[in-house]
């Protein structure tokens, strides 16, 4: 849903995906039952240049985050929703013997969020909504250890863990008039505690195997940031054109330190400062109704990086980015509609990771194809409103 119009959607009530990001909009859903299912296909391209190596490419595979939303419109004013998505995630992979192997060889983070929500229309000008967020997450990190044996040039550390967390989201949607909406939403941070992680150490020299046993447990935590959004949308050109603008504030400062504490007391804890900062995101999008079956969309966005220089590692190289998107919706009948969109951004940055003694220039290109299907059935509340108006006339 983020990619359909450059990420500008906070002030827009369009389909069942509202339950995931802007629950107050569910009361403006047209049909009694609305379903949305989608998948994004992310094509990452990251190359790394250092003083020692002219180019190393990430081996990261294509990622396919999913989203599913259902909204039940109980009455004209009251709606219930359920959303499932994995909006936070990361995957990076490098050759095992590459220059930065002591920082990362492979990293994977997957999260899934389950969101039951409710929305209520107080009057024609004000909707409110909110709900709980239950999140699960898995973490997998593989890196080399600077410990040599007679047969291997370095050891290996492999850490895996999982955990869960609870949070909430809420929002407000105001219809300033029949063509202008303003939306506000907030999603709390989610701290996922990894209490039963497993650490495997291989190819460790005999002299330090008491510090790094073949297998031990560990505890850690991952904090997904809270997000505050404000969006404005306006209909133009006899309601055929809709423009939308979004401002997001993401509170990444909650991610201050990555720490692993091992069950085996002899294994030294790993403490890695991250010092992320709170950042802004701006987007502008437009949707144009070509005819009863087709809508065209486009958008642009600017996203600020939360990672200050000195803390940018090859695990997640990140910089400020400008991006764009194109897409559209095809509606063959009153029950189904299909979304297709494409997003792209390209950035080059030179940054350092002080703790790892690593400085590099990163060239990062991200391309995303987004597919979605909407299914709506049951009572048509807009049709019922039209009948009521005709009766009054």
Task: Kindly describe this structure.
The protein has 393 residues and is mainly β. 4% of the residues lie in helices and 60% in strands. The chain is built from two helices and 20 strands. It has helices at 18-21, 381-392, and strands spanning 31-49, 56-57, 66-73, 78-85, 89-93, 106-123, 126-145, 155-175, 180-187, 190-202, 215-224, 226-236, 241-251, 257-262, 270-273, 279-289, 294-303, 321-330, 336-353, 358-380. The protein has a 14-stranded antiparallel β-barrel. Strand 8 (155-175) and strand 9 (180-187) form a beta hairpin. The longest helix has 12 residues, at 381-392. The two termini are 39 Å apart.
Total count of strands: 20
Largest sheet: 14 strands, antiparallel, barrel
Low-pLDDT residue intervals, each spanning 5 or more residues: 1-5, 384-393
Structural class: mainly beta
Query: Count of DSSP helices?
Result: 2
Strand order of the largest sheet: 1-3-4-6-7-8-9-12-13-16-17-18-19-20
Distance between the termini: 39 Å
- Tell me the overall shape: elongated
Strand share of the residues? over 45%
Question: Strands, helices and their partners?
Answer:
Blueprint: H1 18-21, E1 31-49, E2 56-57, E3 66-73, E4 78-85, E5 89-93, E6 106-123, E7 126-145, E8 155-175, E9 180-187, E10 190-202, E11 215-224, E12 226-236, E13 241-251, E14 257-262, E15 270-273, E16 279-289, E17 294-303, E18 321-330, E19 336-353, E20 358-380, H2 381-392
Antiparallel strand pairs: 1-2, 1-3, 1-20, 3-4, 4-6, 5-6, 6-7, 7-8, 8-9, 8-10, 9-12, 10-11, 11-14, 12-13, 13-16, 14-15, 16-17, 17-18, 18-19, 19-20
């Amino acid at each position: 849903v983020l990619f359909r119009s450059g990420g500008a959607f906070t002030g827009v009530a369009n389909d069942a995906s509202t339950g995931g990001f802007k629950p107050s909009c569910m009361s403006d859903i047209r049909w009694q039952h609305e379903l949305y299912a989608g998948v994004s296909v992310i094509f990452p391209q990251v190359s790394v240049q250092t003083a020692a190596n002219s180019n190393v490419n990430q081996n990261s595979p294509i990622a396919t985050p999913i989203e599913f939303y259902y909204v039940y419109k109980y009455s004209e004013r009251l709606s219930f929703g359920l959303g499932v998505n994995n909006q936070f995630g990361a995957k990076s992979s490098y050759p095992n013997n590459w220059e930065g192997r002591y920082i990362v060889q492979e990293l994977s983070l997957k999260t899934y969020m389950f969101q039951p929500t409710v929305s209520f229309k107080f009057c024609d000008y004000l909707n409110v909504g909110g709900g709980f967020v239950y999140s699960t997450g898995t973490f997998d990190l593989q890196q080399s250890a600077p410990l040599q044996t007679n047969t291997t040039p370095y050891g290996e550390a492999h850490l895996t863990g999982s955990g869960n967390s609870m949070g909430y989201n809420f929002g407000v949607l105001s219809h300033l008039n029949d063509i202008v909406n303003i939306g506000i939403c907030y999603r709390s941070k989610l701290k996922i505690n990894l209490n039963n992680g497993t650490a495997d150490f291989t190819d460790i020299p005999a002299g330090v195997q008491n510090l790094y046993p073949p297998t031990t447990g560990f505890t850690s935590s991952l904090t997904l940031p809270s997000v505050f959004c404000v969006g404005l949308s306006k209909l133009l050109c006899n309601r055929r054109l809709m423009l939308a603008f979004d401002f997001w504030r993401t509170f990444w400062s909650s991610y201050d330190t990555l720490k692993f504490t091992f069950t085996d007391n002899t294994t030294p804890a790993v403490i890695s400062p991250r010092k992320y900062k709170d950042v802004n995101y701006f987007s502008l999008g437009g949707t144009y109704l070509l005819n009863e079956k087709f809508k065209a969309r486009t958008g642009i966005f600017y996203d600020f990086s939360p990672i200050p220089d000195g803390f940018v590692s090859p695990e997640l190289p990140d910089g400020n980015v400008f991006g764009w998107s194109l897409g559209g919706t095809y509606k063959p009948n009153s029950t189904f509609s299909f979304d297709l969109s494409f997003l792209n951004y390209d950035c080059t940055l030179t940054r350092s990771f002080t703790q790892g003694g690593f400085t590099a220039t990163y060239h990062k290109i991200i391309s995303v194809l987004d597919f979605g299907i909407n299914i709506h059935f049951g009572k048509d509340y807009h049709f019922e409103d039209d009948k009521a108006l005709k009766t009054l006339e």
